[in-house]
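Problem 12. The chain below contains 177 residues. Write out its predicted structure in token notation.
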Amino acid sequence: MGKPTDQITISELARRAGVAASALRYYEEQGLLASNRSAGGHRQYPRHVLRRVGFIRAAQAVGLALPEIRDALAALPQQRTPTRADWERLARSWQPLIDARIAALQRLRERLDSCIGCGCLSLKACALYNPQDSIALRGPGARYLAGDTPPVPEAAKPGPAAPRAPRAPRPRRATSP
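Solution.
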């Protein structure tokens, strides 16, 4: 097998990266990738674009949107293959965003079996946490998953102490003379 060339075709990039050629063209339209044209007008990519595509796919898998990915990739050099330091700097800049996504997914996992404030009123807990779909006044969607705080149910609210029933008088002890 010969030495790999610096440029690969769109079909080779698609095969190696595991994405459709149409996705690569779309990524290029969105400013995520850049290609060169052969003498025949065909797209060709520098071999290091394989890592960019892998990065795009990984970022999408954790829920990042293409504009977020584009902004991050814009910090990488286009004129040369990004170095390990370039990638580490980009990864560090995403740590807070990824941590926030992880926290949001954990909140989602914890709340899915409870009232999420969507208005369905199908769970018994909805009557406590979203009486008569009152959360609808705050906006559309599953409001408690969006970050709104559910009210404390009346039954769980601390209230004034209930008056105690009067105690029966204690019997007096007989005293010795």
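Discussion. The chain has a mean pLDDT of 80. Students who got a different answer should revisit the alignment rule from Section 12.3.
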